[in-house]
UniProtKB/TrEMBL annotation:
Pfam family, one: LacI
CDD domains recorded: HTH_LacI (cd01392), PBP1_LacI_sugar_binding-like (cd06267)
GO molecular function, one term: DNA-binding transcription factor activity
Stretches assigned to the Rhodanese domain: 122-212
SUPFAM superfamilies with a match to the protein in the record: lambda repressor-like DNA-binding domains, Periplasmic binding protein-like I
UniProt entry keywords in alphabetical sequence: DNA-binding, Transcription, Transcription regulation
InterPro entries reported in the protein's UniProt record: HTH_LacI, LacI/GalR-like_sensor, Lambda_DNA-bd_dom_sf, Peripla_BP_I, Rhodanese-like_dom
Designated name of the protein: LacI family transcriptional regulator
Top-level lineage group: Bacteria
Coiled coil: none
Lineage, opening ranks: Bacteria, Bacillati, Actinomycetota, Actinomycetes, Kitasatosporales
Native source organism of the sequence: Streptomyces sp. SID14436
Length: 347
């Protein structure tokens, strides 16, 4: 039977470093008031002994759990099938790891999941929350507010009622990117530019539709079909458009998966891309955009950077304490990242 080796204690570190237990505690927990030579001796003793702080005890001192809830308001099947979510989670994970914080992933699919997440947040298990892919009727914002958890949102929040001013979020210039996509298609000489939207209960889809309408103010309403940010939805919407307006000569799709579905439907109907119909997507997700046939012209948004910025803004607010959360002393503010049109063979 293997004998269990006792874990090094705070007292053992103090004895090795020749300092008091209180000094070791301050250094290990990031406190102030310890001269650098002493702090260095403590850090060296920690390394030599392989001391790992007890998280529960550390939380009592720092009032922090070093854990962040990442809440994706989508069912599990959608999250693991759409590369958008993987890229955003990668950015969040990198930033949290760099600051020694644990990512706690929470997915919501229905009413029971919302209640579960609300209870978890109210239970004080995490220091803050990062939330994205919200839908307009989603109860999560209310649950988060009730739990009193500092939060940064991915995407412009769509709710109203006086709460918008103090909400911190990271988003891309969805409306401007959509305008660029449509202007590019018009610049190619296309005249009947259709749009397949995303799920219109999400602000990103609503903003991209608004950008399309900014440029195509007089367009036939039959040139707009509603999708849901999936390839299946894009394929279905493209068939609808071809049935309504078989003379269309361009399509701006709300995201790359939607565009991939649209390309399939165009092939089925014998339409050549870009000769007969030019297609532009949105996201520039390389596993999708470079592998479509033909490769997809699309609007690039830096999805991974959005995740990094969400985490960075939340951690910055936590480090500044309650004053930062109340908007005092230069608290974090929302960020809207620019987009870029990436030209490939589809348009």
């Amino acid at each position: 039977m293997t004998e269990t080796v006792p874990r090094p204690t705070l007292e053992a570190v103090a004895a090795r470093a020749g300092v008091s237990r209180a000094t070791v505690s301050r250094v290990v927990n990031g406190g102030d008031g310890v001269r650098e030579p002493l702090a260095e001796r403590v850090r060296q003793a920690v390394d030599e002994l392989g001391y790992v702080p007890n998280q529960a005890a550390r939380s009592l001192v720092t009032k922090r759990h070093d854990a962040i809830a990442v809440i994706v308001a989508e069912p599990e099947a959608r999250v693991f099938a759409d590369p958008f979510f993987a890229r955003q989670l990668r950015g969040i994970s990198k930033e949290l790891t760099a600051h020694d914080n644990q990512l706690v992933l929470l997915l919501t699919e229905g009413r029971h999941d919302h209640a579960r997440v609300g209870r978890y947040l109210a239970g004080g298990h995490v220091d803050g929350a990062l939330v994205f892919s919200l839908h307009l009727a989603d109860p999560l914002p209310e649950l988060i507010q009730r739990a009193g958890v500092p939060t940064v949102f991915g995407g412009r929040p769509g709710w109203t009622g006086g709460r918008g001013e103090d909400v911190v979020y990271v988003d891309s210039d969805n409306r401007g990117g959509a305008r660029d996509a449509v202007r590019h298609l018009l610049g190619l000489g296309r005249e009947r530019v259709a749009h397949i939207t995303g799920a219109l209960d999400q602000t990103s889809a609503a903003d991209r539709l608004a950008g399309y309408r900014d440029v195509m103010a007089d367009a036939d309403p039959l040139l707009v079909a509603e999708g849901d940010f999936t390839a299946v939805g894009g394929e279905r919407a493209m068939r609808e458009l071809l049935g309504r307006r078989p003379d269309l000569d361009a399509v701006f799709a709300a995201n790359d998966l939607t565009a991939a579905g649209a390309l399939r439907a165009l092939r089925e109907h014998g339409r050549r891309v870009p000769d007969d119909v030019a297609v532009v997507g949105f996201d520039d997700m390389l596993p999708v955009a470079e592998q479509t046939d033909p490769p997809l012209t699309t609007v690039r948004q830096d999805i991974e950077e959005m995740g990094r910025l969400m985490a960075r803004l939340l951690l910055r607010g936590l480090d500044r304490g309650p004053a930062a959360q109340e908007g005092v002393g230069g608290s974090p503010s929302s960020v809207i990242l620019p987009t870029t049109l990436v030209r490939r063979a589809s348009a």
